[in-house]
Specification:
Length: 616
């Protein structure tokens, strides 16, 4: 009888493998984001259209690939991450199976652009049905951009199996959250159908959690820290009274990889025993660090389940660490009462308005919160919390007192508590009284003491967010000039401005001529005056030349930054009371009031306690 066994052609094998690796658009997102992380990127951008069904694009600034590697990367079992079987037990990367790109290329249209730092030009590949259909040399920024279009175009059954757009988008956001939470030091952004869904600056873990889940999260977090020979744990659990009926906020990261583990989940839940309402789930964000040789990640194609050598011990340590943290937290309200600054600091009391008691009880905690509520909250978070209103800032204050007492009792509370707690410190009393110091700082009262705002930096933040909004969402207003303004630049400079023309127009500029070496302007943004125009544009040109934007997004970002820098209130400018108050209010209406677009502090605080100490 004839032999009937044959080897499957590669593209068929790839399609079969794809079934395991790529279940839905979110799987592609996960693989691409992980590759970007493995490439050592410091900034990663995710763009999706139509819930990822039409387009998924990931742009990174990582190590990039050589021509050969770029081609090889789409072969099955092609990986740069392991060489021998032994390496499987000493993994420091997310990927290692070398099948993600091959799988994706088997079931979608893929395009890749990649350039290594040392190379002048990069590689552009187009792949359809596992076949390379085009390859050329391109000018492209350092790093890799991968574009995945028409997912499952050749497997209609799979395509029809996909859920509605909101559901698939939710899955994508979940994956995005997991990777973003595991890597707070990497900057992430995400866009869906052209609008920004997330913009996560480089930060510490606590800030990243808050940026991902909303500013209200901050007051709900209790730090967990434990270091043993087997495992080092760090992160946060949610205070029991905020626990929800959904399991949404449960994150374990093992060596920076998101994992699912019912067993470890049980460890945390059991630490919460007796503290949760019926049906409520603990929330947690926990980083576990173990020797890579003591885990096996190889047991699941999507690598979300791993096996620990000594799971039992980890269970016990985890449970006790969480219990310990919750215990410390539980005694905190008593300390808080005893040390309530309002009760024993008459000076502070004088400045406290009558509204304080009202706000004191206005905590966002609602013991009767229903599923409906938590659903609402999720969709709210999806859009990212808009400006954290004054109320929510103030609410945070109360629990901040609580946290502070814990801080004093706990060593190594968190790496960088200042940022977050400062944000919490700002209260609505800032509007009550402001004072300008040395035409540089604005001083203001806050509940715990004093707020010192750098006027220039604060204004940069305010303008930056305003311009970003104008460029991306709604156009800014323009003021007409009486006579057109003519300026001369070099041809190259005019070219730069031409590239930014559309975005500049969004901010309120109106160009009647922009060619050769001249530029004629008939309208400017309302925030600018005619005499400032040339400074603004010169600054912008030099920023572009120095920064080499790598995409339309970072170009927008750079433009907003540059305009904000040029137009911001400078040090040395004296401000009226009204201007001061307006500045303070606008700053705290920002999405990220704590830092300038360049990540410099916009304000610092000094507590009454600290001042008291100086007088001792
Ligand atoms: P794995 O990540 O398991 O190695 P993949 O199929 O995801 O397998 O990727 C194959 C190879 O392609 C990787 O090992 C890496 O060398 C290269 N690669 C993929 N994505 C990137 C990227 N964004 N930047 C640089 N290299 C990449
Ligand atoms: Mg990979």
């Amino acid at each position: 009888m004839a032999d009937i066994i044959q080897l499957l052609p590669d593209h068929v094998a790839n399609q079969i493998a794809a079934g395991e690796v790529v279940q839905r658009p979110a799987s592609v997102v996960k693989e691409l984001l992980e590759n970007a992380i493995d490439a050592g990127s410091s900034s990663i951008k995710l763009i999706i259209k139509n819930a990822g069904k039409s387009l998924i694009q990931v742009v990174d600034d990582g190590c990039g690939m050589s021509v050969t590697d770029a081609r090889l990367s789409f072969e099955r079992h092609a990986t740069s991450k392991i060489k021998t079987a032994d390496d499987l037990f000493n993994l420091h990367t997310k990927g290692f199976r070398g099948e993600a790109l091959a799988s994706i290329a088997a079931i979608a249209h893929v395009e890749l652009k990649s350039r290594q730092d040392d190379d002048e030009t990069g590689t552009h590949l187009k792949i359809e049905g596992s076949e390379v259909v085009a390859q050329d040399v391109v000018v492209t920024p350092k790093g890799t951009a991968i574009l995945v279009k028409n997912l499952f175009y050749n497997i209609p059954a799979r395509r029809n199996f996909l859920k509605s757009n909101p559901v698939e988008t939710r899955h994508i956001i979940d994956e995005f959250h997991r990777v973003a939470l595991a890597h707070p030091s990497v900057r992430f952004s995400m866009f869906h159908n052209g609008s920004e869904v997330f913009l996560l600056p480089e930060s510490n873990f606590r800030q990243r959690i808050v940026n991902v889940l909303g500013s209200k999260t901050n007051e709900k977090l209790v730090p967990v820290d434990e270091s043993t020979e087997v495992v080092t744990m760090s992160g946060f659990v949610g205070k029991p009274e905020f626990a929800k009926k959904t399991r949404g906020e449960q994150f374990f990261f093992v060596n920076d990889r998101f994992i699912k583990s019912a067993y470890l989940n049980h460890a945390v839940s059991s630490a919460f025993e007796g503290l949760l309402k019926d049906g409520a789930h603990a929330s947690y964000f926990l980083n576990l660090r173990v020797n890579p040789q003591t885990i096996d990640i190889n047991i699941h194609p999507t690598k979300t389940e791993i096996k620990f050598d000594d799971e039992h011990t980890i269970y016990a340590i985890l449970r006790s660490a969480v219990k310990h943290s919750l215990g410390q937290f539980n005694i905190a309200p008593v300390l808080d009462f005893e040390h309530n600054a309002n009760l024993d600091t008459p000076y502070q009391q004088q400045n406290t308005t009558a509204s304080a008691p009202v706000v004191e009880v206005d905590r966002s905690f609602n013991p009767f919160s229903t599923d409906e509520d938590s659903k609402k909250e999720t969709s709210f978070r999806l859009k990212r919390e808009q400006s954290a209103g004054w109320e929510s800032l103030y609410v945070g204050l109360e629990s901040k007192e609580t946290n502070r007492d814990v801080v004093f009792n706990t060593e190594g509370f968190e790496t960088d508590p200042e940022h977050v707690s400062m944000f919490q410190n700002a209260s609505k009393e800032t509007t009550a009284a402001t004072y300008q110091l040395h035409r540089k700082y604005i001083l203001s009262n806050i509940k715990s003491g004093m707020l010192v705002i750098d006027q220039n930096r604060a204004h940069q933040r305010i303008l930056y967010e305003e311009f970003l909004k104008q460029i991306t969402v709604q156009e800014g207003v323009s003021q007409q000039l009486l006579f057109p303004l003519t300026l001369n630049f070099s041809v190259d400079e005019i070219k730069i401005l031409t590239e930014l023309k559309e975005q500049l127009e969004h901010t309120g500029f109106v160009f009647s001529k922009l060619e050769g070496e001249t530029l004629e302007i008939t309208g400017v943004p309302t925030t600018a005056t005619e005499s400032e125009v040339s400074i603004i544009l010169e600054q912008l040109i030099s920023d572009v030349e120095n920064e080499v934007p790598d995409s339309s997004f970072s170009q927008t970002d750079m433009l907003a930054k540059s305009l904000a820098k040029s137009l911001s209130i400078k040090t040395g400018q004296s401000l009226t009371k009204m201007e001061q108050e307006h500045l303070v209010n606008s700053l705290f209406a920002c999405k990220e009031p704590m830092v300038t677009p360049d990540n410099k502090l916009t304000f610092v605080t000094t507590t009454v306690d600290e001042l008291d100490k100086k007088f001792m």
